[in-house]
Amino acid sequence: QVQLVESGGGLVQAGGSLRLSCAVSGTIFSLNSMNWYRQGPGKQRELVASLTNGGSTFTADSVKGRFTISRDNVKNTLYLQMNSLKPEDTAVYYCNVVLLMWGRRDDYWGQGTQVTVSS
Question: Is the model's pLDDT at 58 over the cut of 90?
C-alpha cells in the first residue's frame, strides 16, 4: 500500500513563496508519474505539475515560470516549489502517485494541504 503525506501549506501574502512536500511510503512498483493537483473554492480539481518516472516534467500554463516540481529519491519525497504566489493560487493542493502495470492504472492521493494567498 502506498501512502502520501503532504505538508508545507499555509497562509502567505501575494508575491510570497511556499514549498510543499509529499512524503511517499510503501512499496511502489511500476511508477508512472508523480503529480500535484489543486482544487480551489468552487472549482474542479486541476493538474498543476507532473513528473514522470523518466524525468519529464509538465507544468500548467497558469503556474509556468512560478512553480517547480522536483523529487528527492533518497528521501522519497516529492516537492512543489511555489514562487510569486497569487490569490488565485489559493486551493487545497494534493499529491498524487500513478502506478501503471499491464494496462492497469492505480492512483494514490494524499490528504491535501491548504494554501491560502492573501492580496
Answer: yes
